[in-house]
Amino acid sequence: EKGSFVLSGRRTYADLFLKLSSDKDINQSKLYFYDVNLKGNYRLDSKNNLYLSGYFGKDMLGYSDVFRFGWGNAMASLRWNHLWSNRLFSNTNIIYSDYDYRVDVMQDSGDFIIASDIRSYELKHDFQFYARPGNTWHFGMDLQQRRIRPAQLEAGEGASVNSLSIDPRSAAELAFYASHEWSPLGWLKAIYGLRVTGFDLYRPAAGGQYLTLEPRASLNARTG
Known about the structure:
Elements: E1 3-11, H1 14-18, H2 24-27, E2 30-45, E3 48-63, E4 67-83, E5 88-105, E6 112-132, E7 135-155, E8 164-165, E9 169-185, E10 188-203, E11 208-221
Antiparallel strand pairs: 1-2, 2-3, 3-4, 4-5, 5-6, 6-7, 7-8, 7-9, 9-10, 10-11
């Protein structure tokens, strides 16, 4: 009674039927996708719990030895839930994600590859405070770091295109936020808050920074 986990996976098998074809180009083609999911939780003690989740998936499409197109995503997150009191608790999240795609083109004159990817890391610390029924505060911080490789083309000898590489971009974003959910009456609820965000593009060196303030508010009423 301390924890649990689940691990699952799946894959399509359409490509197995392609191998039954007498056409050489068809039976050497690729057509499938697969993914793996993981979820788990563990209770450290009465006030601390850990939650782990992960995902990895890949898609592949290819025709004989002419071209192949593959793309996929990997994601993992670890969350720590801590109960400070019977009215205050927090969630600390560490999140990683990586998306990429790749195109392989095979030609008699020469092969070439096109590739791109987006990778990000995130640390989020979120609090919820239940002052009393109908009066809840949410506040915390969110730090993200991203690296984007827009495009890279690698051309082999004799290819009909030239090699090209666009420098990766890296940036960081830091945000602080707070909101208040207030329900003075059973049929009326107001939510308002403020988010302060700073952004810095630090690679390439000629980057830029900006700061934004985002006030947010909503009013909900229920009748009947």
